[in-house]
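Following up on my earlier thread - several people asked me to post the actual chain instead of describing it. Fair enough. Here it is, all 82 residues.
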Amino acid sequence: MPEICRFFGVIIRMFAEPDERHHGAHFHAYYQDRAAVFSIDGLEVIGGSLPRRERRLVEAWAEPHLGELVENWQRLQSGRAP
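Reply from S.P.:
Thanks for posting it. Predicted structure:
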């Protein structure tokens, strides 16, 4: 799973399945032993959980990077590198 970004101990990754339809556009955020999946559309947690502080950090990071997240999602789903 390619790493998109790393900040304050949080790792952002995206998963690619170019040969089959994956779930809607989303990314995974990891912090220590916790993980959450965020939808790109709406920036809401759709799976897992993070501590409150780290969830807010991820949301604050993702908002100004939405365009890049969408572009990376499209690239990965077509088999290209982010």
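The mean pLDDT is 90. That should answer part of your original question.
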